[in-house]
């Protein structure tokens, strides 16, 4: 495997700026990697025809002395939930097969403006509904650590692309864990920013009060560098915060010194015991806490009594909002159309949705429509929103005592393809630790914490901070990352098979 592929985005950026590597070379290396391994991984739904052309333009501008952004010339994978003008945007669904958007998502536009080179669009569970990327209409993505296992979801394509060294960076979206849970099972870093901290304009909506776009990478610093590019206010997004954000890259670099851990109060949730968690996940979590404690952190037990209701509340709020958001796919304005000779508009709409939506999407739309129906709204959707408020209060009370909260990023390592497809409840429980973060709108990050003893597969630790304190997560994440990398003797992905190419 090319040495270029093993570089972090930060290191690749430095070599691009120094002229040691050209963007065209870096782009060709990653396109060659995609050609070599993606037939087995299936991280990408579409590979760009323009990547080398874009890279060549970056090289020309750099040679002309133009001042370029930190990540100019670095390749980027884009989750297919984000619309693009030069590549199809399907959200993993047949109903949008071949759809070409007339505009770029704001985060895509910002990435282009910063000089990143889009490599292609990554696979995902249809309309981001899933925890395994098995619900894609275009076939599952496979985990590069073990091709018989899932890469997480809904953003398994982005995580697998980064883990398989097909891209140094990727964009994802996180509605209930869709960046962080794939990071957990692929040994990558996944960040869900504060709600409103990154524009959702051009992200095909699933649940508008929960969706958040964020970065996927192999190091905390790399995620911070991409977050600096895509973050900030967007007038096109009514939920976009107007805050002035600090440099997240500077926060990550500060955290890597380890000083941030001295006196840091790390909350551990009393109600989140080992029940339902794989032994190797719990062991890795405790080992990470011990490493932080040895470096000067204080571990504090906090209570979050309403977290146990998070999954139930989420699976009423999300389907309700999804049923509203997906109503736009009506066979009339855009997307698939199944004609019914002699049929009414309603007949065509029903036939199109039947053919265009997969089973998981249908399941959630039906559930959400029922939860919003007359006579049931208060009992279901209204009650779920009340639980959401209680979870937000749990966070507020906990953060009055601690700086960050730590949890395992998910209960288990990557399970086998097909293992949970027929058991939606077990599939949904994969997000038990990530869902409360979305319900509260606070930021969360997952970083690799080790390998489970039982199966040698990656495990992640999640840190959560108060709203708008994303920089705090980059400091803490980078500090623990530095501790663990030292103890492992290198990045965790250096110990991965990655189709025999990473050792």
UniProtKB/TrEMBL annotation:
Residues 25-473 form the Amidase domain. Keywords: ATP-binding, Ligase, Nucleotide-binding, Protein biosynthesis, Transferase. PROSITE patterns: AMIDASES (PS00571). Heterotrimer of A, B and C subunits. HAMAP family: GatA. Belongs to the amidase family. GatA subfamily. This is Glutamyl-tRNA(Gln) amidotransferase subunit A. The lineage of its organism: Bacteria, Bacillati, Actinomycetota, Actinomycetes, Micrococcales. The gene is gatA.
């Amino acid at each position: 495997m090319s040495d270029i592929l093993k570089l972090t985005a930060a290191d690749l950026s430095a070599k691009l700026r120094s002229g040691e590597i050209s963007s065209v070379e870096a782009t060709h290396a990653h396109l060659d990697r995609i050609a070599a391994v993606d037939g087995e991984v299936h991280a990408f739904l579409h590979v760009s025809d323009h990547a080398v052309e874009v890279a060549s333009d970056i090289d020309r501008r750099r040679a002309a002395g133009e001042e370029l952004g930190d990540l100019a010339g670095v390749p980027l994978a884009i989750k297919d939930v984000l619309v693009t003008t030069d590549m199809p945007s399907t959200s993993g669904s047949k109903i949008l097969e071949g759809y070409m958007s007339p505009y770029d998502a704001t985060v895509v536009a910002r990435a282009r403006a910063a000089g990143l080179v889009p490599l292609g669009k990554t696979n995902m569970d249809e309309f981001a509904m899933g925890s395994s990327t098995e619900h894609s209409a275009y076939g599952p993505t496979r985990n590069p650590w073990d091709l018989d296992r899932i890469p997480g979801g809904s953003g398994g394509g982005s995580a697998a692309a980064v883990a398989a060294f097909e891209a140094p960076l990727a964009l994802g979206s996180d509605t209930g864990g869709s960046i962080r849970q794939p990071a957990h099972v692929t040994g990558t870093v996944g960040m869900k920013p504060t709600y409103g901290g990154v524009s959702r304009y051009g992200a095909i909506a699933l649940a508008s009060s929960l969706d958040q776009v964020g970065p996927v990478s192999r190091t905390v610093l790399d995620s911070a560098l991409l977050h600096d590019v895509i973050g900030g206010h967007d007038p096109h997004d009514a939920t976009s915060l107007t805050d002035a954000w600090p440099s997240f890259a500077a926060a990550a670099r500060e955290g890597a010194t380890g000083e941030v851990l001295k006196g840091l109060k790390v909350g551990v949730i009393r109600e989140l015991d080992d029940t339902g968690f794989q032994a190797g996940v719990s062991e890795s979590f405790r080992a990470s806490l011990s490493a932080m404690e040895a470096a000067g952190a204080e571990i504090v037990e906090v209570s979050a009594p309403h977290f146990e209701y998070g999954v139930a509340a989420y699976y009423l709020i999300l389907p309700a909002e999804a049923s509203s958001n997906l109503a736009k796919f009506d066979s009339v304005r855009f997307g698939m159309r199944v004609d019914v000779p002699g049929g009414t508009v309603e007949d065509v709409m029903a036939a199109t949705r039947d053919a265009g939506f997969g089973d998981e999407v249908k399941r959630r739309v039906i559930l959400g429509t029922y939860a919003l129906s007359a006579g049931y709204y208060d009992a279901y959707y209204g009650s779920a929103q009340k639980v959401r408020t209680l979870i937000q209060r749990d966070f507020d009370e906990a953060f009055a005592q601690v700086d960050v909260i730590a949890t395992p990023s998910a209960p288990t390592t990557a399970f086998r393809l097909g293992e949970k497809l027929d058991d939606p409840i077990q599939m949904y429980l994969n997000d038990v630790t990530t869902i409360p973060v979305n319900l509260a709108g606070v930021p969360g990050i997952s970083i690799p914490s080790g390998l489970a003893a039982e199966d040698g597969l990656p495990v992640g630790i999640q840190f959560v901070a108060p709203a708008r304190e994303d920089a705090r997560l980059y400091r803490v994440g980078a500090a623990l990352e530095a501790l663990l990398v030292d103890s492992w003797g290198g990045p965790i992905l250096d110990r991965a098979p990655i189709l025999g190419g990473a050792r």
